[in-house]
Amino acid sequence: MRSIVISSVLLSTALGLVACGGGAGGGYSAPAAAPVVTPAPTPTPTAPPAATTLSEATLLGSAGFVAPATSHTVYELSGDSPASLECTVASSCTSVWPPVTPPVGVALSTGFATFVRPDNSVTQLEYLGHPLYTFAPDTAAGQTGGNGIVSFGGTWSVTRP
User: Fold this and answer.
1) Is the Cβ–Cβ distance between 143 and 57 less than 8 Å?
2) 76 near 159, Cβ under 8 Å?
3) What distance in Å separates the CA atoms of residue 89 and residue 68, rounded to the nearest whole number?
């Protein structure tokens, strides 16, 4: 009988320990881990897009320059240079091929420069030594009607970057 009493006491003790150790009844529980707080990412300041002298568009299958205000195609005349202008006011060239003036408030991108035209004192934009023009009959953005025209001492072509 002694063994039955000892077995009962051990069983009761074991059940008591199990009851105290679990559940919501006040047994031991490990301290809750501190919540992990991830700081919100600080937005990285982004630089505004770099202003460019002229925009680019796909013209005749590849990139070409367009004037910023009108998006009209920009052309150059073979044989024309700031030092030796083929397209002049005196020849009426600039009435058909208006000079491109530099955009206001934009630093010139690589390859661009300006010069003052000796025939009418307009500051004109040039790219890699070629004075730049638009073509008056191009009345909408993306038109390339002036490409390939031979006049005023050279051949007109879309100016490409």
Assistant:
1) no
2) yes
3) 23
